[in-house]
Amino acid sequence: MPDKTDNHVSADGIAAEASKAAKKGGLPPVHLWNPPFCGDLDMEIRADGTWFYEGTPIGRPAMVRLFSTVLKREGDKYFLVTPVEKVGIRVQDAPFIATDAEIAPDRITFTTNVGDEVVADADHPIVIRGDRSEPRPYVHIRAGLEALIDRKTFYRLAAAAEEGPDGRAGVRSCGQHFALEV
After folding, report:
1. Which three-class secondary structure string do you get for 19-64?
2. What pLDDT does 159 receive?
3. DSSP assignment, residue 31?
4. What per-residue confidence (pLDDT) applies to 182?
5. Mutual orientation of helices 7-23 and 61-68 as an angle, nearest 10°?
6. How far apart are CA 59 and CA 87, in angstroms?
7. What is the distance between the alpha carbons of residues 44 and 55, in angstroms, rounded to a whole number?
8. From the DSSP assignment, how many helices (H) and strands (E) are in the chain?
9. Among 181, 148, 83, 164, CA closest to 173
10. Domains and CATH numbers, the chain
11. With a threshold of 0.70, does the pTM exceed it?
């Protein structure tokens, strides 16, 4: 196991393990992994969805995608995990940004900044936080990880909104009504 104080080794080790898992297809089973905590890594996901390592933006989209596949949330904390190590990272808001949505009559499919696609449904709800003057819309992506819905996509959802059973404007997807008002 890498030395807890050597963040370069941990970042490289996480990337190597994530790469191995990616070659097997699909997302790695991070929900099944419970390795020992190896310390915090100087990595942060900013509110705009930009990933930083040691204060510098990670410029390679493929590397960001790779790290995103081994991201795990436990309570209010976020970790990058492999079968053999777990390192803490900081997340300012949500780890992902929903940058687009395909809005069909009863199906809304979101695409995130890291290439994930998810259909809004009972397991992947759209939730609104904040207040009436500054609503903060999110969609659940996987295992407690959410994406902030970007402004342009939220405006498109609002344009497609209809009054729901509770009297609030919202959208429908997979038989569910999701209010777009706080």
Report:
1. HHHHHCCCCCCHHHCCCCEEEEEEEEECCCCCEEECCEECCCHHHH
2. 97
3. G
4. 85
5. 80
6. 21
7. 8
8. 3, 15
9. 164
10. 11-91 (3.10.540.10), 96-179 (2.30.270.10)
11. yes
